[in-house]
Structures are given as C-alpha cells and as structure tokens.
Amino acid sequence: MPRATPPPATLPKKTRIRSALSDFLATEAAGGALLVAAAAAAVIWANSPWAAGHDRLFSVDLGPLDLHDWINDGLMALFFFVVGLEISRELTTGELRQPRAAALPVLAALGGMVVPALVFLAFTLSGPGARGWGIPMATDIAFAVGVLALLGSRVPSPVKLFLLALAIVDDLGAILVIAVAYSDGVNLLWLGGAVAAIAGVWLAKGNPVVLIVLGSVAWWCTHESGVHATIAGVALGFAVPAGRGESYEHRLHRVTTFLVVPLFALANAAVALSGDAFGGEAGRVALGVAAGLIVGKVVGISGATWLALRLGAATLPEGMRFAHVVGAGALAGIGFTVSLFITELAFPGRPELLAGAKVAILGASVAAAVVGAGLLAFAARARTRQGPGVVAEPST
Questions:
Q1: CA 182, CA 345: separation in Å to the nearest integer?
Q2: Residue range 34-45+52-183+228-383 in CATH 1.10.150.20
Q3: What is the pLDDT of residues 148-182, one digit of tens each?
Q4: What gap in Å lies between CA 234 and CA 200, rounded to an integer?
C-alpha cells in the first residue's frame, strides 16, 4: 500500500518548500498541455461553420454579467488570487526572499517587460493600437514550464528556477500594469469598500469563512470601483498569511490550472484567421505584439542579465550559463494567458485590433516555444561536449 503524502503544513520547512516547488512545476507542465488544447479548440471552433455558436454561448446572461465576463472578471480573479499567493510565497520562502538571489530574475524580468513594450510602441505609437503596449510584457508560466518539461533533465534545475522566478516577477509587473493602465474612472468610495474588506481578511489571518465572505465583497467593490476586479484577487492573495497561503495554493492551484485557465482560453482565443487581422492598424498591432514577444523578450532579458553581470549586480547560479539565459528569454516570449487577458482590456469594442493582437499572440507564443526549446537543447549539447563538471562562464 502506498504511503500517504503528508499535508504540506506537516512537513519540515525545507522539504515543504521543495515539495511545493515540485508540485507547482508538475501541475504547470500538465496544465500547459491542457491550455494549448483549449486554445486550439477555440481557434478551430472560431473557423468552423459553427463559429456563431461560440459567441452565443459566451454571451449568455448570468445575472449582472454574461458568461464571458464571469470568466474574465470572476474566475480569473481566482487565478490572480493564486498568483498573489505564489508571489507572496516566493517573497517569503522562495527564490525572491534573498535580495542577492532575487537580483538576477528581477532585473531580467524588468528588461523583459520594458523592451517588449518599447518594441510594440515602435510599430503602433502613432495610432490607437498604442494602448496595447502591455500585451507583449507577459510570460505564461504554464506554457513555458510545459516546454521545459518536454526537455526534461537536459535543462539544469537553476535554469528552471530562474525562469519560474522571472515569470512570477513578470506576473507582478502585469498586475501593476493592469491596475494602473487598464483601469478607468476609479470610484474612490467603492475602492475604499474593497480595501476595508481586504483588510478584514488580513486581520482574520485568512480564515476561510471570512475569506469567502469578505473576498466576495472585495471582488464586487473592486468591480464597481472601475479598477479591474482581478486586482482584488491579487490583493487577497497578499492578505493571507504565508502558512495558510501555502494550504490555499495547494488546493486551488489545480483548480485554476485545469479549469479556470483552459476555460479562459476557450472563451478568449477564438479568433477567425482572416486577412483582416493583418491589415491597417490591426496589422501594426499584430507586428508589434509578435516582435515584442519573439524579439523584445529575448533581447530585454538577455540584455538586462548581461548588464547586471557586467556591473556585478548579480551572478549566475552554479550550473547555469549565459546560453541558458538566452534560451529562457526566448521561452519567456510565450505570452498567451495574461497577454490575451490584457488584449481584452486594451481594445474593448475594437474587434479588428482584438483579432490582430490575438493572432499574433498565438503565433508568437508557438514560435517562442520552438525557438526557446531549440536554444536550450543546443545549450545542453554544448555542455555535454565540454564534459561533466565544466561550466562555461558568461562573457562579461
């Protein structure tokens, strides 16, 4: 009879951290495959004779919101709640808890956000498409980790941790972008109600009953305030104490990975593949997104890392070479879930810009996955030719 796995809270601290990380990576890898399947189903559906059925299904009214908005504003708030728990865990017990260790992924992530946004604006600055500058800043953890899982042991553990930490910092950046750039007409009274509800969750130390009741209040108040409702999910994640947060993350991570994110992809990745997505302003948006994800990400991450190493602000972990940084930077160009999410916020009522951005996100994410996997496989072969125990230092 197999031994039962102890609950996360009963394990020694170091074992619990390793267990949580392993569980996280395994779940993300499996979720990445399901995410791709859901997105592919959405694209096929949108280009089939039954395409109108997709719009009818996700336009069904369910109380104050339709099904599409319940997924994007409601279920995705749960997704961002788990993101908030993940970021909080990384800051307290993970790779980001020590400033010296956190410096490399943090600086790399900043380069990987700023450069793609600038590349996008180079194509769209003079038109209405410029509002989508946040689209190529995102990295999809599930999709990227899924690619790493295919490469297996050929990718050293420090590279996986680097990409994971980078993507989590990237998520934090995306959250700030959503809160600042894609929230309009903020009602301070409703926002104050949300803050009070979140403070109640914090004072109750994340008690599950209080979390459900006041979390729902915080979500609704945030929705009514003009700030996107998913921000409430992130804030609630930070309001839960680390120990209890690990328990919530353990329970909810699979729900968001295997249910929420695939549903989101099915609802939002449905785009008709027609020439309209590549003409005029939509074409400039598509080019900006594609260039930002494929070129901007790898240049930004690699460039920021090189500069950090050159200035002595960070060091590469043992077993990791600069070639791995370039490969991880390419994989970070898999925007997907959060990129699609920001697209919906950036271009409401502009179906042609939505189509251009979504086609580019889908194509660029696939291209980034192929290029990143190829670069990391090449780095693995180069390391094998050097012989065991030989680690090439990056050129600074």
A1: 6
A2: no
A3: 877 877 888 888 888 888 888 888 888 889 888 88
A4: 15
